[in-house]
Design brief:
By secondary structure, the protein is of the alpha+beta class. It has a single domain, classed as Thiol Ester Dehydrase, Chain A. Helices cover about 25% and strands about 35% of the residues. The protein contains five helices and six strands, in the order H-H-E-H-H-E-E-E-E-E-H. Strands 1, 2, 3, 4, 5 and 6 form a six-stranded antiparallel beta sheet that branches. Mean pLDDT is about 90; it is low at about 1-15.
């Protein structure tokens, strides 16, 4: 598997509405590894979750917005592909992008890279729904969030 075919194609990025965004930097710690010495899948999910909150903040879904307006975000679908193992001490970077944003739904991706080798370790695509935390029902995004989200839409990552 070549790095070029697994990772985002930079030529495609030049033609995209938005290039991938660095949303997280981290390291794999020994306690995050399983009995085979690889980072356990639960930690991939956790690291992707941290990147999610940074990406959502870029479209205006900040912690203060969510608290002040009694809003939330819920993940309704996630598909993750594991490409290369990560081991204790590996440095990671996560690059993300918005695939689409609709009235109440945002679909986005993350790619986790070994920051030293630039090899794609894992990628995930998520679908999130905007929620009124009082009624526990989906609700529309405000116009300004839809606008910011649309500016970040990329053709990459799917």
């Amino acid at each position: 598997m070549s790095r070029e075919s697994d990772s985002l194609d930079t030529k495609k990025s030049e033609n995209s509405t938005s290039a991938p965004i660095l949303t997280s930097l981290g390291v794999v710690y020994p306690w995050q590894c399983d009995h085979m010495g690889h980072m356990n899948v639960m930690w991939y999910t956790g690291k992707f979750d941290e990147a999610t909150w940074h990406l959502l903040a870029l479209v205006g879904l900040t912690p203060s917005y969510l608290r002040d307006r009694n809003r939330g975000m819920v993940a309704v679908q996630q598909e993750t592909s594991y490409k290369r193992e990560l081991r204790a001490g590996d440095l990671i970077s996560i690059h993300s992008g918005v695939l689409e944003i609709r009235e109440k739904v945002i679909r986005f991706y993350h790619e986790m890279l070994n920051a030293e080798t630039r090899d794609l370790a894992a990628k995930t695509i998520l679908t999130g729904v905007h929620l009124d935390t009082g009624t526990r029902k989906s609700c529309p995004f405000p116009a300004e969030i839809l606008e910011l989200g649309r500016k970040l839409v990329t053709r990459n990552g799917s």
